[in-house]
Amino acid sequence: MSQEISAGIIVYRKTDDGPRFLLLYHGRNHWSFPKGHLEEGERSFKAALREVQEETGLRSRELIFKEWFKIHDRFFLWKDGKKVFKIVTLYLAETTSSKVQISHEHIGYGWFLYKEAMKIAKYESIRKILKKAYDTISGKSVSGGLPNPARRGRNIQRYRHDNRTPQRSEGGGAGTQQKSPYGKSTLLQGGEV
Fold first, then answer.
1. Cα 112 vs. chain centroid, distance in angstroms?
2. pTM for this predicted structure
3. What is the number of H-type helices and E-type strands within the chain?
4. Going by CATH, does the domain composed of 2-189 fall within 3.90.79.10?
5. Is residue 192 scored above 80 in pLDDT?
6. List of residues 6+ apart from 139 with CB closer than 8 A
7. Residue 117 phi/psi, 5° resolution?
8. 74, 111, 143, 193: which has the highest count of C-beta atoms within 10 A?
9. Could you tell me the residue ranges of all domains in the chain?
């Protein structure tokens, strides 16, 4: 059996209504966190930063990490008729930017409140990860994990608050509106379908 290793970041931003999580849309009702495969010799944290920048346009300087939050999602999938064991390492980071520019790999994106994100999450493992991230952000629990030395000692900058969500990204693709299962419109940024 082959194995795939990926890394990504659970990106959120604070709003008056609560934290909003960034989920990318793949089509066929599949939403997920920004993530991707590790390149040869690459460590998971560096891969997560690279993948987030490639898939969303968000740079490392726009992310403020929860130093001790690191979680793994492990599951099996079928690829080209073969069973594959996949491990995804996810980190948790806040951003003050609502601007996202998706890559060609995705059809759209949305900033979702916790309850909204839980409704559209297709897999139970994603819902469990969302719950742990939400509990960490809201101070309800302290997840274990390794500290992130790359962010230790950095100042947290104040952010300009705005309630205009979701936002169109600048450059690339026309936005389209799609009705979400909870009744509000979600902006899906145009990508090649």
1. 11
2. 0.73
3. 3, 9
4. yes
5. no
6. none
7. -60, -40
8. 111
9. 2-189
Question: Which two structure tokens, joined as six digits, stand for 144?
Answer: 């274990």
Asked if the model's pLDDT at residue 70 lies above 90, the reply is: yes
Read off the pLDDT of each residue in 90-97 and give the average, rounded to a whole number.
97
- Kindly state the tokens that stand for 15: 């709003």
Mean of pLDDT over the chain: 79
DSSP 169: P
- Which amino acid is residue 191, in one-letter code? G
Residue 158 CA, chain-centre distance (Å), reads 21
Side chain identity, residue 156: I
Cis bond upstream, residue 166 (ω within 30): yes
Question: What SS3 state is found at 14?
Answer: coil
Backbone angles phi, psi at 4, to 5 degrees: -120, 140
Nearest to 51 by CA among 11, 111, 19, 83: 11
